[in-house]
Specification:
Elements (H helix, E strand, L loop, with lengths): L2 H14 L8 E4 L6 E6 L2 E7 L12 H14 L7 H5 L2 H13 L4 E5 L2 H15 L4 E5 L4 H10 L2 E5 L4 H11 L5 E6 L11 H10 L3 E5 L14 H4 L8 E5 L9 E5 L1 H10 L1 H4 L6 H16 L2 H19 L11 E5 L3 H15 L1 E2 L2 E2 L10 E5 L6 H18 L17
Helix pairs in contact: 2-12, 4-12, 5-6, 5-10, 7-8, 13-15, 14-15
The protein binds pyridoxal-5'-phosphate.
Length: about 425
């Protein structure tokens, strides 16, 4: 057995499909968000980041920075253990209260990432429920799919945001069977929003539990940043609300919130929670500061929405293929992995604009795209620069414009 050859062949397959991933070597600059230094071929260049999930710039907010350095100075760097063995720390306990309050729930539980929170919680909840049937939206994130697989429970996939299909599956399963509906509020690659109210009503009608991933909404939607469920006044009708601390809260970690008993069960049974070290106090403390700030400040949310609208408007009017979306996520349709990668490279090298190409398996083949995120710091000058750069790249690489682009359904254009 030539072991190396197996791995080389695996990597070659990715190269052949133009989906071998290359990471940009970046250094973000506090005080100059969204600028970053990019190291490449022995040179350092300043670039504008247009694909960050630090959606509100909270990772550079002075209160958040101060909370992190204060806690690190007073309490040290690592947590020093798992939650069970010496790693539990006061900022983390506070953080869980803050999160429970954010979603109007009895309890919260923090994990080392959003991925881990979905994997550990979905698998544990579905394992504990006898003969559980999981009903999963077809576009759910990889971390939710991992949780579903690890549960070993039966699963059925409903067509994306299709409540009629969901109802058929619920009806067929019957009222008595344990059922867990697993879905997201904002789908991060298309930027569309789930019909939360209809799903909640179906769950109540057929006596199913609901598990909602609000990763791309927390901090940004709802009067206090509680996500789409807060905006729609539905938080109290959803059993488990999950989120990340690493996107609009600007730090690292993930969480669930829900009733005391469900959260306690996950805390007590999930290996992904039990057998891993706790989040460090500095990260927890910084996150508390970010959440508290966003509970009372609309400034970041308002500026973000303003800049998002300006970006969409300018790019659309320039004829660029902006995919229809109601949220802060602005996907630009390319539809070809080679072109998508080339466009991204050219934006970076010629224009100093960083937008990572989104290729299979993150999105279906033939729907490759550039995913643009405007934050409160992406003002008019940066938006005009982006529009001009994109037009140059579209022209040079001969990428299709929006003229024949209808938004839905996506079609292969190259
Ligand atoms: C990013 C993401 C996660 C994972 O969160 P991390 O904190 O980055 O691990 C979970 N769900 C969705 C929908 C995501 O986009």
């Amino acid at each position: 057995m030539d072991y190396s050859r197996v791995f080389e062949a695996a990597i070659d397959r990715l190269h052949n499909e133009n989906r071998y991933r290359v990471f940009a070597d970046l250094e973000r600059i506090v005080g100059r968000f969204p600028q970053a230094l990019w190291r490449h071929n022995g040179q350092t260049k300043e670039v504008t980041v247009w694909c960050s999930n630090d959606y509100l710039g909270m990772g550079h907010h002075p209160d958040v920075l101060k909370a992190m350095t204060d806690a690190a100075t007073r309490q040290g760097t690592g947590a020093g253990g798992t939650r069970n063995i010496s790693g539990n720390n006061h900022p983390l306990v506070e953080l869980e209260h803050e999160l429970a309050d954010l979603h109007g729930k009895e309890a919260g539980l923090v994990f080392t990432s959003g991925f881990v929170s979905n994997d550990a919680s979905i698998s544990t909840i579905a394992k504990l429920l006898p003969d559980c049937l999981i009903l999963s939206d077809e576009l759910n994130h990889a971390s939710m799919i991992a949780g579903i697989r690890h549960s070993g429970a039966d699963k059925q996939i409903f067509r994306h945001n299709d409540v009629r299909h969901l109802e058929e599956l619920l009806k067929a399963a019957g009222k008595d069977r344990a059922k867990l509906i697993v879905f997201e509020s904002i789908y991060s690659m298309d930027g569309d929003v789930a019909p939360l109210k209809e799903i909640v009503e179906l769950a109540e009608k057929y006596n199913a539990m609901t598990y909602l991933d609000e990763v791309h909404a927390v901090g940004m939607y709802g009067a206090r940043g509680g996500g789409i469920s807060e905006r729609e006044g539905l938080s109290h009708r959803i059993d488990i609300i999950e989120g990340t601390l690493a996107k609009s809260f600007g730090t690292l970690g993930g969480y669930i919130t829900g009733s005391k008993v469900v959260v306690d069960a996950v805390r007590s049974y999930a290996p992904g929670f039990i057998f891993t070290s706790a989040l460090p106090p500095a990260i927890a403390n910084a996150t508390v500061a970010a959440i508290r700030h966003l509970k009372s400040s609309d400034l970041e949310r308002d500026l973000q929405q303003k800049n998002v609208h300006m970006t969409k408007d300018l790019l659309k009017r320039a004829g660029l293929p902006v995919m229809a979306t109601e949220t802060h996520i602005i996907p630009l349709f390319v539809g070809n992995s080679d072109l998508c990668k080339k466009a991204s490279d050219r934006l970076m090298e010629v224009h100093g604009i960083y937008i990572q190409p989104i290729n299979f398996p993150t999105v279906p083949r033939g729907t490759e795209r550039l995913r643009v995120t405007a934050t409160p710091a992406h003002g008019e000058d940066l938006i005009i620069h982006l529009k001009d750069a994109l037009l140059e790249v579209w022209q040079t690489l001969d990428i299709p414009y929006a003229t024949d682009f209808t938004g839905q359904p996506l079609k292969q254009t190259a």
